[in-house]
Amino acid sequence: MNFTRPKYLRDRPTHYCPGCGHGVVHRVIAEVVEELGIRGKTVGIAPVGCAVLAYDYWDFDCSEAAHGRALAVATGIKRSRPDLAVFSYQGDGDLVAIGTAETIHAANRGENLTCIFINNAYNYHKPQRSNKVKKGSEKSFLKSDRQKRFFFGGSSFSVPYRVGA
Amino acid sequence: MKTKKKLKVHSYFSNKPVLMTGNDAVGEAAIKSGCRFYAGYPITPQNELTAYMSRRMRDVGGVFIQAESELAAINMVFGASSTGTRAMTSSSSPGISLKQEGISYIAGCELPAVIVNAQRGGPGLGNIGPSQSDYFQATKGGGHGDYHLIVLAPTSVEEAFTFTVLGFDLADYYRNPVMILSDAIIGQMAEGIVFKKPRREYPKKKKAWALTGARGRPQNIIRSLYLGERVLEKHNLKLQEKYHLIEKKEVRFRQCVPENAGLLVVAYGSMYRLAKDIAAGLNNSRKRVGLFCPLTLWPFPYRALEKAAKGIKNILVVEMSYGQMLEDVRLALGKDVSISFFGRAGGEVPEGEEIIDYILKKKLL
Ligand SMILES: Cc1ncc(C[n+]2csc(CCOP(=O)(O)OP(=O)(O)O)c2C)c(N)n1
Ligand code: SF4
After folding, report:
1. Which residue, by CA, sits nearest to atom 4 of ligand 2?
2. pTM
């Protein structure tokens, strides 16, 4: 079996940390867009957080959104152009801390959108906790050693690449 | 089976005057300008506009969303505009404060949008009376970063209509957010208006930048994030170039300066109407009263005001604030000119007589 780069994932150096899961999810999204043959009607919305540059990896129309407002932006796009396939890509800081209202209300209105939720704590602003972390549950919430180290402040600056947004 | 609904967009021209409030006139102008997306959140004194849009958008097959907040509303407009759809949101002072982050993003991403502020008394929750206390916010930034809104200030219901039509054209032409800065008076008073075509036509540009699905073309990205050395600076310089062009081309004002004018009253929006009454009330004086009314608050008509004020002994600025436009008048006229100021705020409207008393007491005429 040949392991190749999906058609709509750009060939460019990553800004994510080594071993970061964002790259895998980006890849899966690019594969899905290719498989469904929907590049010509896809619009992605990048969050504010580590994945703020997601649009630089995908080869289809994309927008940025203010921190937490991706689903409001997505609503504006989808309602104006119902023929487009619109998705947002958001971290938990974006989706369920600062953006809780937009998230709940987009769901409540029954917007016809896809929301991809990357539940990884405030990695961009490590070692802060997002509202998704229950008291005392940090250890089970953070699966890998890398994440634990990261979350508990063990090695914040050992991360080789980080963006500022 | 889908049946095609007949959509009702009334023809552009009509010689028959209609009685309308300023808020409704903005709404009708938006519909006639092809605005097909509106998102807003209720707040007095602009609720009539939200109500109007909820009705008219249904007529024309557009989108109306009563959003969960002003934050959501402005970001929905961001999304709608990024598809190339003409989009508008409206609010009043506290709600406009909440929209500022979104407005800065819209300016940074160079998206067209029309934002209406029917100003009310502040600061804080203030009250629902008319006010002009958001002048600084509208003209000097409001949100973060080096950006400008084009700010149009209607003085009548008719201008609420024509300026909104103009606003949509300017927004598309320059890819820049436009603010219609009215207040509780302009928004809620009713006057007879005729739906006039705007005087200047702006060529329609194809929105090649819009997010429409990248069928058969390279990817489009709507972004204001620019990392790397000098990349954001370059983007900012491009914006500045656009702002300079707007300053050169889009300054608008109205003036009426008689030859023997001894006093020039400078006022905008609803206060221009009061200034007209004052000038009429002082018509019998030996010296006459001149009027100057900026119609674009940004770009401000600095040079035109300087010219209009030449040789006039006294200048009086009247505002429903404690001196916000006054600062631009000072910039236009310099230190050597004596500038008086009469302002009331907190939702209070100055009376013509109290201003005339002030003029006579201070011997401005
Ligand atoms: C209004 C606003 N507040 C705060 C920030 C700073 N900020 C940038 S990213 C971020 C957290 C993002 O966390 P999350 O959504 O979980 O994404 P991750 O980086 O973990 O993928 C914050 C607080 C901002 N850009 N805008
Ligand atoms: S901080 Fe976490 S989410 Fe962000 S790039 Fe690094 S590994 Fe990925």
Report:
1. A50
2. 0.91
